[in-house]
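Trying the structure run again after the queue cleared.
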Amino acid sequence: MEGRSISALHAALRIGARVTWQSLQEQARQGNGNPEAFARIGETVYWYMDELAVSCSAGYAEARAELAGETGQLRRHLLDMLTSTPAAPPLAIASLAQAAGWPLPRRVAAVALAPMAGRNAGPLPGGVLGDLTRLDPCLLIADPDGPGRRRQVATALRGWLTAPSQASVRRPSPGPLAAVGPAVPLTDASGSLRWASQALALAQRGLVPTDTGADGAAGIVWCEDHLPTLVLLADPELAAALSRDALAPLRRLRPGQADRLARTLLEWLESADDASAAALRLHVHPQTIRYRLRQVSELFGDALNDPDARFRLLLALRVQRLLGSA
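Done. Tokens:
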């Protein structure tokens, strides 16, 4: 319970046996007693020491397993407390963290897991809280944004999410298994988990790409790489409604024509109204872009000159592009 190793206890047993035997030898040298009896007693002392060592090892293992079970339960409770909304009082968090043996970090990142992820994995890496029994299994990683930390986190996640039974087969992952939320102060852990869960859901729909290792390990989504997309698709249904409403004039055209004009308008807006730059991006002649823009102008009128309307159109077109790729 105090964190000492079993080797210290075994060393104490050996010292006790050695001191006892030295005392018996001294008695024998002084002629006090039967030497044969002293020899039998010495053998018995060492036999008893072996028996004690076996019993102590068994008891140590049992106590350690019990402590690990209690610690695991405390850490799962701490994870629930940190990811709940509203956040628990800091004193309660600090007290539970101390009891769970988890040093409170300055910043954390939550990891949302697919329900099957890590079910056959080994123990969690150090400094990680986790619970796979939840309906939304997740992890909480301490200090995720230090130098080289992303690579370390990716290596740990891929190794942990790849079940031992699958590691030797090296089959490609069936899909994204984990999404790493933004690094946030400890008190905002619930927000990091919310964004990670959203990123995982979008990745499973094919709306956010995953970072897949060259060895075919588990696919990982990093929220920090897709923040504009996550903001834009925070509510996919609402975003789709915006896109339909803002791009309603295009519905007057045939689907193929509407698609060409939508792509032209998006590239033109993203090129700061530069028709030549838009032409390069679309691999067409600048005159083709200008011809299409005249058609766009007829459809949208003064909206192309109004900053708010242009911004709305840009959002709508990007939503259309994202949702159209699903």
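The beta strands are 107-113, 128-131, 138-142, 176-180, 184-185, 219-222. Worth checking whether this holds up in the mutant runs.
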